[in-house]
């Protein structure tokens, strides 16, 4: 850990528990609210003009990876918890609401590779970004993948191993590949 990152941790503390075994890139672009818990081996990368904002009482369990790529933006609301090995990767905008529970090994990716030209290797084509919005009080099960351009409504549940590639209605229970509504919570 670089000395400037250690100083950043001391400034951010505000009754938060931050492991000294976390990895930081672009710490000047990261804001952490009060009473947060960042466990060992988390990585927060806001280099390349990215921005990461954690609300109050956010928990990042071991091996959570947040990356706000070039001009990317990640905002996580109060009382939200991300479990082990979750990846949040934004080339655009990702907003996760309050009181959200995200299971282990979830992938939230706000960009995708272009492949329109067959004359240019896919790796060299530009990426497309689209925002991902996860509203308040959502529960996302283990191993879920959420693709760009998706909005998950308030109070929704996403079952384990699902692929979310379209908007999810509020207070609905959803599962599958692709993810489909199973029933209502109301």
Describe this protein's structure:
With 186 residues, this protein is mainly β. The termini are far apart. The protein contains 1 helix and 24 strands. The relative contact order is 0.10. The chain has a 9-stranded mixed beta sheet with strand order 1-4-7-10-13-18-21-23-24, with no helix packed on it.
Q: Determine the CATH topology.
A: UDP N-Acetylglucosamine Acyltransferase, domain 1
Q: What is the string of helix and strand elements? A: HEEEEEEEEEEEEEEEEEEEEEEEE
CATH architecture: 3 Solenoid
Cα end-to-end separation: 48 Å
Low-confidence stretches: none
Strands of the widest sheet, in order across it, are 1-4-7-10-13-18-21-23-24
Count of separate DSSP helical elements: 1
**CATH class categorisation:** Mainly Beta
How many strand units?
A: 24
Mean pLDDT, nearest integer? 90
Helix content: under 10%
Q: Pairing-aware structural class of the strands and helices?
A: mainly beta
Range of strand content: 35-45%
Overall number of domains? 1
Largest sheet: 9 strands, mixed
Give the overall silhouette.
globular
């Amino acid at each position: 850990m670089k000395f400037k990152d250690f100083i950043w941790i001391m400034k951010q503390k505000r009754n938060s528990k931050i492991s000294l075994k976390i990895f930081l890139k672009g710490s000047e672009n990261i804001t952490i609210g009060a009473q947060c818990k960042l466990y060992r081996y988390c990585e927060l990368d806001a280099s390349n003009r990215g921005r990461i904002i954690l609300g109050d009482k956010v928990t990042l369990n071991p091996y959570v990876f947040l990356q706000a790529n070039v001009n990317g933006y990640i905002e996580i609301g109060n009382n939200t918890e991300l479990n082990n090995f979750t990846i949040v990767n934004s080339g655009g905008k990702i907003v996760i609401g309050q009181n959200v529970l995200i299971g282990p090994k979830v992938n939230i990716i706000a960009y995708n590779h272009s492949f329109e030209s067959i004359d240019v290797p896919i790796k060299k084509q530009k990426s497309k970004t689209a925002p991902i919005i996860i509203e308040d009080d959502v529960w996302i099960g283990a191993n879920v993948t959420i693709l760009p351009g998706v909005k998950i409504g308030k109070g929704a549940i996403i079952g384990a191993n699902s692929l979310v590639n379209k908007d999810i209605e509020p207070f609905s229970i959803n599962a599958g590949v692709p993810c489909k509504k199973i029933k209502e919570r109301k």
